[in-house]
Amino acid sequence: MVNLIEAQKPLLTGMMRLAGLRPIDVELEPGTTMHFWAPKHHAGKKGTTISPLEPSAGDATTKKKPSSSSSRRSRRNNPESKPNVVLIHGFAAEGNVTFQFNFGVLVSRYNVYIPDLLFFGKSSTTDSADRSPEFQARCVAAALARLGVARCDVVGFSYGGMVAFKMAETRPELVRSLAVSGSVVTMTDAVNRETMARLGSGSSAELLMPETLQGLKALFSVSMYRKMWFPDRMYKDYLKAMFTNRKERLELLQGLLDSNIDAKIPTFQQKIMLIWGEEDKLFDIELARKMKEQLGENCQLHGIPKAGHLLHLERPCAYNRQLGRFLAYVSSQEEQEDAN
């Protein structure tokens, strides 16, 4: 019997190709490959796999920065000169599925990169036992370097938000700004216990890696503001299609936990936008307000009413509008600084 979720993937692939994106596998080292959807100028005649020793046509170390007088003209004529935006997915789906309603509004103004984090989609590693968000951040940054990306705005959702925060903390020269939704800077034991107790779940693994139909229904119930009905077959097919690599993903969940109860929030240099569903049950809006205060004056918070944890899927127009405004603001600020 045809898996209904898998059957939709060719349509989504076609949509992404029409938007000018192409699938590329970046081999970071033997045994570790990160799958990306990237702008089509990266897909050359040699195929869509970039090996560790293969020089990238857009290598960040050789790319020349355009002069301020010609920057606008070059942005129109040269796709590689447009700002780069990286979309990092959460725990329940790979990149193109997570951002299927969002990438389309960005591709005309930005070079859009959508990675599958390790053990999601077509990304995998056999050599490393590291399962921390820091490791995911290092791999995304290394893959972007192979693609010639020297500076980018990073958009992170849920688990992807934690990876995005780690990228911004450890690679400030790479990350220009952050837009994060439904996430925390670091998942401490205290935050994890409070969240699981509030949701009535035994553990994050029980909630985020369901094995049964009822478990998946419970996950969607706490993730969405609106009560959505789907046939049981759709849930069963989603379980088979999206919850692969169970052993490794359970290890990723364990790697999230920070045993330091008093973990300090780093000082970020970047502009940060928190885009939040006001009805988020996993990480509620009050948590977002506290995080905004902790992150300081460089951080803004925008709440979207009648939206839960999956706000980018429930209310994509409102989410896309706010994300677009923030990215345009960051670009305009940089242009003003360059002009001065």
Please describe what this structure looks like:
The protein has helices spanning 4-18, 71-77, 95-98, 133-146, 159-170, 189-199, 204-208, 213-223, 232-242, 246-256, 285-295, 311-314, 316-339, and strands at residues 21-29, 32-39, 49-50, 84-88, 111-115, 124-125, 152-157, 175-181, 187-188, 257-258, 271-277, 299-304. The protein has 340 residues and is α/β, with parallel strands linked by helices. The strands form two sheets. Strands 1, 2, 3, 4, 5, 6, 7, 8, 11 and 12 form a ten-stranded mixed β-sheet that branches. It has a two-stranded parallel ribbon with strand order 9-10. The longest helix is centred in the C-terminal third of the chain and has 24 residues, at 316-339. Residues 60-70 have low confidence and may be disordered.
The tally of beta strands, per DSSP, is: 12
CA(first)-CA(last) distance: 62 Å
Largest sheet: 10 strands, mixed
Instruction: List the uncertain runs.
Output: 60-70
Structural Rg: 19 Å
Beta-strand portion reads: 15-25%
- Quaternary class: single chain
Look at the helices and sheets and give the structural class. alpha/beta
Number of helices, where a helix is a run of at least 4 consecutive DSSP H or I residues: 13
Level of helix content? Answer: 40-55%
Assign an overall shape: globular
Q: Mean pLDDT, as a whole number?
A: 88
Order of helices and strands: HEEEHEHEEHEHEEHHHHHEEHEHH
